[in-house]
Structures are given as structure tokens and as C-alpha cells.
Amino acid sequence: MKTDLLESYSFHLLQDEAMRKNACQAVNHFLKDQKPVKNAQLHAIPLVIQTKGFSGLRSLIKNQKNKKTKKENKAFWLFLSDLILSNPGSEFSLRYFLHNQPQINVLLQDETSAIEKKEQKKIRKANKAIVDEIMEYVLSVYFEHFNCHYFYRTRQGA
């Protein structure tokens, strides 16, 4: 079922339209309160996603946010941590966005349908695995949108 979704026209449209809009909103949200970072902070992201996927991006974000670095760099990596790694994340996070898309939501089980806490946790874990798999698939497109809008807004070019 997930393969059908990932190959569907509606999912490709989701990546091109809705996800671009979400990525742009995330950039705007960050730049509203923070000083822009240099392009070098963004250049590693696509390469890491291409070579190591979601787990590589998770490692990059964790390593960068724990570095002793400029205040604006620290703020940027903390922002990306919230944007990508938090579960369920803030209203502009990628996970929150994906979780609320109708074509993805139909793949998820309703956690409240289970009575026992143990069963709810099992459903939550299964739902997270589904969204993680979809995130793995969309990360490169998402960050293409994110980086393009970031470079546009900061006029730094690529």
C-alpha cells in the first residue's frame, strides 16, 4: 500500500506543491526570528541525505547542534532538529505535515482505538515507522525546496 502511495500522482503532487509550501513556511519561520547562516551550513544536507538517508541526516543534525559554534549556527541546527527529528514536532515540522496529509493519514492507525496503554504504544510505534519510511522517501525533495527558498530569501545563491 505504501508503494502505491509513493508512486501515485497525488503523492508526487504533494511533494511538488504542499511540501514545497511547508518547506518555504519553515524557512520563513526560521528567518523571522534568527540571523541567516552561511550557505556552508546547508550544503552538507543534500549530500548526507543522498548517501546515508534519514539516519545520516539525524546524525548530522545531532552532531552539528552539539558543536560549540556561532550562535546563529547553533540556532539553525536546533531549528532543524525540531523541524525533522521531533515527534510529533511543531506545526511546521515535516513529521507533523506528513502525519496530517490525508493520503498518509489513511495508512496510520488511530491510537485512541486501543484501550490499553501497551497497545496504544504499539500503534504509536507502528505509525512512527510508517511516517519515518515516508520521510526517508521525501527528505531529498523536501530539502531541495527548503534550500532553494532559503537561498532565495537570504539572497546568498547556491
Write the SSE topology:
Elements: H1 2-7, H2 9-33, H3 40-65, H4 71-85, H5 94-99, H6 102-105, H7 117-154
Q: State the low-pLDDT regions, or none.
A: none
Q: What is the N-to-C order of secondary-structure elements (H for helix, E for strand)? A: HHHHHHH
**Count of DSSP-assigned helices:** 7
Oligomeric form: single chain
Mean pLDDT, to the nearest integer, reads: 86
Overall strand count: 0
Radius of gyration: 16 Å
Distance between the termini: 37 Å
- Tell me the structural class: mainly alpha
Count of domains: 1
The share of residues in extended strands comes to under 5%
Main sheet overview: none
Shape: globular
Helix share, percent: over 70%
Quick recap of the structure?
With 158 residues, the protein is mainly alpha-helical.
Question: Overview of this structure, please?
Answer:
- This protein is an all-alpha fold and 158 residues long.
- The chain has one domain (2-154).
- The protein has helices at residues 2-7, 9-33, 40-65, 71-85, 94-99, 102-105, 117-154.
- Helix 2 packs across helix 7.
- The longest helix has 38 residues, at 117-154.
- The protein starts with a helix and ends with a helix.
What are the main properties of this structure?
mainly alpha, 158 residues, single chain, 7 helices, globular
